[in-house]
Amino acid sequence: MPIINKATFEELKQLSGEDFINKLIDAFLEDAPNMLAAMHAALAGKDVESFRRNAHSMKSNANTFGATELAALAKELEGMGKEGNLDIGKRLEALKKAFGKVAEELKGMRV
């Protein structure tokens, strides 16, 4: 499975334009670490709603770029948050690792 679905990314690039795609990438690369930190904090504070909201945002943003694995992991965590289940095991670490791969790939896709 590719880290970024090229067709989805190319469609986004066509819709947004080459100038704006770089801004979208930069915003995601800046926002995602904050979402991950907020999820960690929410987990520590047992704040289910904050955890769910940040997982939802991560899922949506990942889907925008075609980062399917990252989106799937975030969707799973969002679902757990909706159920009030913060017994997530190593899933947040897996999400961080997947984000790292996506970040590297996106940096190379800037135009």
What does this structure look like?
By secondary structure, the chain is mainly alpha-helical. Helix content is 80%, strand content 0%. The protein contains 5 helices and no strands. Helix 3 runs antiparallel to helix 4. The radius of gyration is 14 Å and the shape is elongated. The two termini are 23 Å apart. 30% of the residues are buried. The model has no long low-confidence stretch (mean pLDDT 96).
Provide the fold topology.
Elements: H1 6-16, H2 18-44, H3 48-65, H4 68-82, H5 91-108
Helix pairs in contact: 1-2, 2-3, 2-5, 3-4, 4-5
From the alpha carbons, calculate the radius of gyration and give it in angstroms. 14 Å
N-to-C CA distance: 23 Å
Low-confidence stretches: none
Number of helices: 5
| Structural class based on helices, strands and sheet pairing | mainly alpha
**Strand count:** 0
What's the helical proportion of residues?
Answer: over 70%
What would the keywords be for this entry?
111 residues, mainly alpha, 5 helices, 0% strand, elongated
Summarize the structure.
The protein is mainly alpha-helical and 111 residues long.
